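Usage

Read records sequentially. Each one opens with the input sequence:
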Amino acid sequence: MDGMALFADTLESGGAVKRYRQKIHWQNVLTEWGIAWGVAGNALVGDKFSEKLRALVGSENYDRYKTELIVEKCLKLMRQQYAGTEEDIEVIVGICGTPARDPKSRAVYLSNPEAHLYRGDSLTACLAPVNDYCIAGMDVTLAAFLLRAMRNPFLRMDEALRLGVFTTNVMKEYASGVDGDTNVCVHKIGAQGWTPLLDREIAAIESDFPVSAVEEHTTSFWVTHPKARNDSEINASDLRMRAIKQRKAKLSSSRKSKPGR
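and closes with the structure output:
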């Protein structure tokens, strides 16, 4: 409701050697507007995309539609120069700013600040707007499940930060190819551009919302759910186990009481 946030791990998957790298980039222009993006896929192509995008954004006044075309131009360039499924990249882009001119009459006016989220890839070179949230990566089904289950349309920025960090940590625990530190880039509507979340702020959220809580609450849900229990079977099982323990105890005591030769 009051901004956007991008989250990513730092592990570069692919190749025999583990490496860690920045996957989220941002650029604030003239202290008036900003763009931030995250890249998933081939690391080298992603770095090339980020370099081209940073150069083409430049230092002009805020123009959302022009910025969208610049991002699509960079995606198209990656598709042309680095064709192939192993070189494809996916991007998540956030654009924020305050329009200063009417796009038709070009008359100067003051408008409300705006924030827009997009998802795109180099295969189609299309940057599509997203209304709520989006995910990029190799296998993001677990993250999609968590966000779909826990996110609500009236989420505030403080809640979104906790949910994003928590979801990223769950992915690092259970999904392959996801590891390293968590990076977060935040824009609050009305603020000037993007700012990274401090390491200590991320560490505080990770401490308050540990991944182990997922296992505990999932186990509690299943064990205490009335339809997951069959009391008659549980009682019978308890009786059988109790009888086995009693037999073992009697056998052990009889061996101890038998006199040695």
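Summary fields computed downstream for this record:
- Residues 231-257 form the longest helix (27 residues).
- The beta strands are 3-8, 11-12, 19-20, 24-29, 33-41, 89-97, 114-121, 126-130, 183-188, 195-196.
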